[in-house]
Amino acid sequence: MTTSPARLRAAQALGKVLRHGAYSNILVHQVSKDLNDPDRKHLQLLVYTALRNLRGIDEIIGAASSRELAQIQPDLLDILRVGVAELVVLGTPRYAVVHSTVDSARTVAGDRAAGFVNAVMRQIGRQDVDLDPATFPAWMATRLEASLGEDAARAFMQSADHEARIGMRVRVDDLDFAYEPVAGVDRVGYAVDPAAIGSLADSGEIVVIDPASSVVGVAVAAEPGERVLDMAAAPGGKTVHLWDAMEGTGLLVASDRNAKRLGRARKRLTKIGVNPAWVVLDGARPAFRPGSFDKVLLDAPCTGLGTLRRRPEIRHRLTPDSPAQMGALQRGLLEQAIHLVKPGGTVTYSVCTVFAEETSHVVEEFGGRAPDGLPGVDVTGGLLLGPATTGTDGMFISQITC
């Protein structure tokens, strides 16, 4: 039996995500480009399953191994994690998983390592192993309950462990392409045939974007001839929405403190005819006069918990201090955004997370409110979307009139 390319690459990708800060959704796409469709889907399933169930998987390996986890060679540990994910979580037959896992270990580290992996996998395969069903750290589950309530928190965690569909926003009037619309948001929905969207995105006829992010663009309600600032614009999906709403007129400024990310956004958007004024700018110290804009969108840096369906590793990267730390940063950015809007103008604040420290607690002192007529659940200071309620990423949106 030969080593499965999907299993071995899944283990290698897992290591890059856990130890080198890679984003799983981007990396999985990169490392599976040359695989056939079944292997590509298998690789993604293995990586995401291992990340979502990492705590329980490590407990199972630790109980079956003669070594402490910290003493296991990291790339071998990743191979074991993928093997256990497939054997215990996905229920693939033992003979297929064990042999392929051992072959992967032999390919990476030789016969001695393969013997160790074989002993661990066979020990696990001989037992009735119970996987810890808690896929979230205890502190995170507690904080989610405090933010959302017990029932809503449980629903969020369950739905966040499922695969996200590919969302899109239509930019042209006569697009001949089937998509499932999201109620209450025009031209926004999910691609019926995800394989067919590549050329449409390249041509600029659609933007691949989660519907929750499109709801943010609708909430801003930018109009032709206005002066609008996209205060943290990269990677640019919402910038396109604002440009379309303004019909390329007025002044749209797309700013971000990260020059490289902004440069990539500019390169991509220029290809589809979207040409705002690009400015490298630290939102904490904006170089604009007070009252310079009719509207400001602050899609603020955040913990990103609302994107767990696409990046399950986020739960392992955050600490109990992360929400409050991000909340302090967000509050400072929001104060600056408010100064930049003329009297009677609006600031739209959005974050792709659901922690109260980054949502309601940030906007409460500024009189934030939920935008009208959009899908989601009204919460203190804004509107909350999520996988369990709207089928989208988790997103908080608040509007402040200056």
Please explain how this structure is put together.
By secondary structure, the protein is an alpha/beta fold. The protein folds into two domains: 5-125, NusB-like (N-utilizing Substance Protein B Homolog, Chain A, Orthogonal Bundle), CATH 1.10.940.10; 210-401, Vaccinia Virus protein VP39 (Rossmann fold). It has 16 helices and twelve strands. The strands form two sheets. It has an eight-stranded mixed β-sheet with strand order 7-6-5-8-9-12-11-10, sandwiched between helices. The chain has a four-stranded antiparallel β-sheet with strand order 2-3-1-4. Strand 10 and strand 11 (382-385) form a beta hairpin. Helix 1 (5-20) packs antiparallel against helix 2 (24-31), helix 1 packs across helix 5 (74-89) and helix 3 (37-52) packs across helix 5 (74-89). The longest helix is centred in the C-terminal third of the chain and has 18 residues, at 322-339. It starts with a helix and ends with a strand.
List the helices and strands and how they pair.
Elements lengths: L4 H16 L3 H8 L5 H16 L1 H11 L9 H16 L4 H16 L1 H15 L12 H11 L1 H11 L6 E4 L8 E3 L6 E4 L5 H7 L2 E3 L2 H10 L6 E4 L6 H10 L4 E6 L2 H13 L5 E4 L12 E7 L14 H4 L4 H18 L1 E11 L8 H4 L13 E3 L2 E4 L9 E7 L1
Parallel strand pairs: 5-6, 5-8, 6-7, 8-9
Antiparallel strand pairs: 1-3, 1-4, 2-3, 9-12, 10-11, 11-12
Question: What's the CATH superfamily of the largest domain, by name?
Answer: Vaccinia Virus protein VP39
Note the total helix count: 16
Number of strands: 12
| Proportion of beta-strand residues | 5-15%
CATH class of the largest domain: Alpha Beta
Main sheet makeup:
8 strands, mixed
Mind telling me the C-alpha Rg?
A: 23 Å
Query: What's the domain count?
Result: 2
Low-confidence stretches: none
